[in-house]
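PT: before anyone asks, these are the final sequences, not the draft ones from last week. 694 residues across everything. Please model them as a single complex and drop the result in this thread when it's through.
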Amino acid sequence: MSGSHPGRIAARFADCRAQGRAALVGYLTGFDPDHERSLANLLAACEAGVDVLELGVPFSDPTADGPEIQAAMVRALAAGASLEGVLGLASRVRERFAELPIVLFSYANPLLRACDRDPAGARGFCARLRELGVDGLLVVDLPPEQASILRAPAIAAGLDWIGLCAPTSPPARLNKIVNDASGFVYAVSLTGVTGSALDADSEALRAQLEDLRGRTQLPIAVGFGVREPAQVQALAPQVDAVVVGSALVQAGRDGPSSLASRVADLRAATTG
Amino acid sequence: MPVQPPDTSPPALGDFGQFGGRYVAETLMPAVEQLAREWPIAWADEAFQAEYSRILSEYVGRPSPLTPAPRLAAAIGGGQIWLKREDLNHTGAHKINNCVGQVLLARRLGKTRIIAETGAGQHGVATATVCAYFGLPCVVYMGAEDVARQALNVFRMRLLGAEVRPVEAGSATLKDAINEALRDWVANVADTHYVIGSVMGPDPYPSMVRDLQRVIGDEARAQCLDRMGSLPDAVVACVGGGSNAIGIFAAFLDDPGVQLIGVEAAGEGLEGRHAATMSRGEVGVYHGMRSLVLQNDDGQLQEAHSISAGLDYPGIGPEHAHLRERGRARYLAIDDEQALAALSLLSRTEGIIPALETAHALAALEPLVAELGPQAKLLVNLSGRGDKDMHTVMGRLDAESLALVERARAHSSQAQAGQGGQ
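LR: through. Structure below.
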């Protein structure tokens, strides 16, 4: 268990709070467009100021994602992406950034498949994730009703279980989600897929975030459709973190320096 | 198939053992929960039942007849073969039974917009038809590959007033159309109902679609008792997602003497490209359900292949996986060539041109008669008619008739040229 740093996520949120700003959670799809260029992009993004890395596992049928991330997953799979390969990228990032929280984003099937294939089952797989330097899991198609198959072994292995709250979730569901979550709660900003157009100043979103704040002590991250520094600036005072995904994937298509400058612009906006 | 470690068994949601469940994004969960809550109430409501039955009777044309097939039986070595004629329904297949019920439910829930996915176009046409009947806007997602292969059905849907949206992503076939329909539903869940076309997807869809297709089995069971004087020895149906099979099986589940036999598509053969989820699939989570799926070691879905677009799907309804696991149903695989031969045989012996999907079930009859004996009573769900498949079949089965058409065309243009010279 060398390199195990329990609480990297909590520590980073505390740091950001002390600096009087929101954390920047940056999403990139592993292996997009291939192993080498993905690694270069990941390192550049983290160097440029991503506070929490959300590393996406490519999936053949990403039903919750919009066109930008779908295309990234297609590129990644065409380049031979596998869960093991993406975990290899995670451990390379971990070598360079000892304190950076890494959250693995995935659809359920690749993870459940890995659990089935691990001699020690889901517990064994989750323990290995932890050893490789992963800090949390964000599984988009495991709502609370279905989450126990992976959540319990993840928690047992010391991984945080990131809960997803939707604008459509009624109060009873929100309470269940935040009670099951650890690390942070991810507020989905809009009723739609990733990368959709977002009005960051909408009253409904403000009310949604305020309501969520009343339900949990955990840090709250908001994401889906956040592309511009102005949106980060508008959201930062209301939350503990802002998630940017499709926009980083798009910037990453032009290589590490373009991506890094996009990250720097977004990071500068986190002071609100 | 790998044994599931105990710590990955899901909580019971849906009634299909380890299969089923609701594996969808949180944004959709409230809508899925609403369906799960409201469907049993609607289905138990006499007024809802009365309207569903009335439309099936006066619009769809139910009950569909049971037709004996003695010349087919003679050609395959015996058996008493009876065909449940879902091909005679309005729009030419069993799909419309489900669409009528789901659109009625959508209206009851105050939804004002309907979306659907389609592979060959049969479910899309049935959904577009019912939306026209009720005056509801309808969007149908269809893989771009399928749009190209099924131009006639695309035109039918547009004529019926539906918007057809081609899906270029992934393999541009049925599974990608489902992905895109799910994305539309996530974005428009407040006013939109997604009419899933088979016994698949998140709970309650597999149960709801079964309930709506069960009319096939209920009618057929009564017709068997009336016409054959007994229950059949076996009920045979083709399986893609599995709705026509579940619909006819459902009425016979509690008749232990009746064998239930599903027939899936072996495509170019089980060692090549196929859609044989039961034979070659493994447990996975996909399109909102836990079931058997065709996937690689890394949990990525594989592209299915069948000559019949309706069976060209890498998953299967969770109830089928459960029926097989508990030994209540068994599943055979029939390849493209066998299906084509069966389509041709039924056409010539009984004057019925079946859909390519249905032809898979028909192709299984000869080995079943050999196994069960020449006195065996076999009930087959004739799930759809073959008009939509004529272009595919002509290319594969009857190059001669294509050549005949070409010669006639050449002759007629020569004649015209000759006339012009006078």
